[in-house]
Amino acid sequence: MSRILQISDTHIVAPGALTCGVVDTATALRVLVQQVNDLLPSLGPIDLAVVSGDLTDHGIAEEYEHFCEIMSGLRLPYRVVPGNHDARGPLRNAFSDQDWISSQGPVNWRLDLAEVSVIGLDTLVSGQPYGALTPESLDWLEAQLAALAGFPVLLMFHHPPVKTGIAPMDAQNLRDATRLRQLLQVYQGRCRIACGHVHRMLTTSFAGHPLIIAPGSAHAVTLDLRQRAPNSLTLEPGAMVLHSLDPVEGADFTSQMLFASSYDGPHPFED
Fold first, then answer.
1. DSSP 8-class letter at 33
2. Do the Cβ atoms of 167 and 121 come closer than 8 Å?
3. Count of Cβ atoms closer than 10 Å to residue 43 Cβ
């Protein structure tokens, strides 16, 4: 079975600082890393962790250094895709020793596992909160899907191409997803789409495939469904998502949320 852990929206700032003046994202990520390590014996092998954007809050070198220092304790290999709070130059420098990161252009990558190919896409539009896929990225994706020829795919990127009902976030989602939709509608294999950005766990579909939006690792976007709702955060518990694909023919992906902090148990079901 292939298992991929999705961590999202870590928003790491400089050591000692708080994100938005209120969120200790560094401590939250350290707790998440420890929780993952503690869960590994009961979860079984996990092939990869992917951080689906907004690794840092301001996209500067000091923040990426802090992020990498915290993540160095994770007992899993991991990859990342950029979010709107990231910056490609400093991100590339932080991962310059990794063979999966491109030296120029969008930060797109593909990793083939036993039962699934994981594809990371770059939706960053520098200086903007919303996302977009460049023609270069879409051409690259088309070529990857053609080569995979129906093999199961987990497609991961930051900005959702769907509305969530949270108006301030919907204004910042993926722009012009027409060609992406067309590419995925004709893909004949199993496909699950996994995004971040909204800091909340949501499930829906896009182009005929299930789409999961992962919660944030430290804080949430406020759940306010009024049309003129302000953009704000709440200090809800951090969480992550484990995506799994069973090799049994006809099996589909499962995606389950895991809390990013420790809790009591297990206790037997008996009086």
1. H
2. no
3. 14
Paired tokens of 131: 């996302």
Distance of CA 205 to the CA centre of its chain: 16
Q: What is the pLDDT of residues 188-214, one digit of tens each?
A: 999 999 999 999 999 999 999 999 999
Query: Half-sphere exposure of 141 toward its Cβ, with a 13 Å CA cutoff?
Result: 28
Give the model confidence (pLDDT) of 66-86 as tens digits. 999 999 999 999 999 999 999
Does the pTM surpass 0.90? The reply is yes
Query: For residues 161 and 182, what is the distance between their CA atoms, to the nearest angstrom?
Result: 13
Q: At what angle do helices 135-148 and 178-185 cross, to 10 degrees?
A: 0
Distances (CA, A) of 145 to 4, 79, 89: 19, 20, 27
| CA 202/CA 207 separation, integer angstroms | 16
**3-state secondary structure string across 36-103:** HHHHHHHHCCCCEEEEECCCECCCCHHHHHHHHHHHCCCCCCEEEECCCCCCHHHHHHHCCCCCCCCC
